[in-house]
Each structure stands twice: as C-alpha cells, then as structure tokens.
Amino acid sequence: MKGFRFGSTEGAFYILPGQDGWEASYGNDKLGEFSSPQQAADDLARGLTCPHLSEVDTSTLEIPEKLSDWEIVHV
Description:
It comes from Paraburkholderia caledonica. This is DUF2188 domain-containing protein. The structure is a single chain. By secondary structure, the chain is mainly β. The protein contains 1 helix and 5 strands, in the order ββββαβ. The protein has one domain (2-74). The N and C termini lie close together (6 Å).
C-alpha cells in the first residue's frame, strides 16, 4: 500500500490509508479522514482547520495540491 508525505518547514504531513478512506496526519496528530488522498491534499494546501494545528495555518506552508508533488511512502 502507498501513502504520501510532504515535509514542510514545520514538520512532515502524511496522507495514509485509514479505516474509512484516507487519513491526514501531522506528527502524531490525526487531522481528519478524507474520501480520497487528493481531497486531503487540497484541504491541507488551502488551509485545514484543526484543533491540533491551532498555532499553524497550513495554507502558509506551501503544501502542494498536486499529489505528484508529494513523496510516495509505502506502508
């Protein structure tokens, strides 16, 4: 199985297969579940609102919307 990783200046973001779709995470914090990895990348790039990231606006981290710009990781 494959997932996706993006290393930002604030740390690594992951989009990995979850129980009911795809799960985005930052460090050890889960940021939410999504129907597709593309939806997760879009939400992270545009600015995901999450209690775990109250001090970080993901839209300022230059997270790419295109999954082809993310690193592929095998899980």
